[in-house]
Amino acid sequence: MFQGFKEFIMRGNVIELAVAVVIGAAFSAIVTAFVDNLINPLLGAFVPTGSLSGWVVTVPGLFDPASIGIGAIIQAAINFLVIAAVVYFSLVLPMNKLAERRARGQVPADVPPTQEELLTEIRDLLAAQRNAR
């Protein structure tokens, strides 16, 4: 039971995923600080409260009025769009361009050598070893 779990954890994909989650969390904090301290004050100049995150719309209810934090929703959407744009332009777009270049043959794909090529290399190394004695 534990052997299967150990094999699962030691796979490269799980480690890469863990690293990606940690980096994503750190990047999310940077984007949140950027939006909170730069974008929100700029957009806050155009909302009645002076702060985007503090912009609340009050809706009358049956007993008490309800408050909808429209600014917080807009702020979350801006965070998402900034993160999506950075991920797209820094990761997805370059990988797509690289895949296109490989498809056109401009960048050689990592093709493993054939058995014949490996046997030829072994033969040449053995011959060089025999001649060196």
Automatic annotation (TrEMBL):
Q: Which UniProt keywords apply?
A: Cell membrane, Ion channel, Ion transport, Membrane, Transmembrane, Transmembrane helix, Transport
Q: Where is it localised? A: Cell membrane; Membrane
Assembly description? Homopentamer.
Record carries keyword Hydrolase = no
- InterPro entries on file: MS_channel, MSC/AndL, MscL_channel
Annotated signal peptide: none
User: What topology in the membrane does the UniProt record assign?
Assistant: Multi-pass membrane protein
> What residues form the membrane-spanning segments?
14-35, 69-93
- Taxonomy, superkingdom: Bacteria
- Tell me the function of this protein: Channel that opens in response to stretch forces in the membrane lipid bilayer. May participate in the regulation of osmotic pressure changes within the cell.
Q: Which family does it belong to?
A: Belongs to the MscL family.
Query: This protein is called what?
Result: Large-conductance mechanosensitive channel
Q: Does the keyword section mention Transmembrane helix? A: yes
Q: Gene name?
A: mscL
